[in-house]
Input
Amino acid sequence: MSTAWTTLIVAGLLEIAWTLGLKASDGFTRPVPSILTLLALAASMWLLASAVRTLPIGTAYAVWVGIGTVGAAVLGIALHGEPLTLARVGFLTLLVVSLVGLKATSGG
Output
């Protein structure tokens, strides 16, 4: 796996962090979670920008958002009691398959 792809995956993991941080910050009313959320957001965007120097923007953005979406949905279920339904699992699985397909077909 190339450095750009590794960078993109880390950016996606940080997207999960800042997305979950939005809930923890309680609408940016809690200082520490708010600061951590903003730091994760800035780092995630910086890493995404770094990855798109090499990777196609459409692919990189879709993978970045997809990692964040799947991670936030799974952790929302695990940590916040969001509903776990067969349909939800099915659609998240389709999203993961799509992300793998984008990686497999974009080179780099």
Observations:
- The chain has a mean pLDDT of 94.
- The chain has one domain: 3-106.
- The two ends are 8 Å apart (CA to CA).
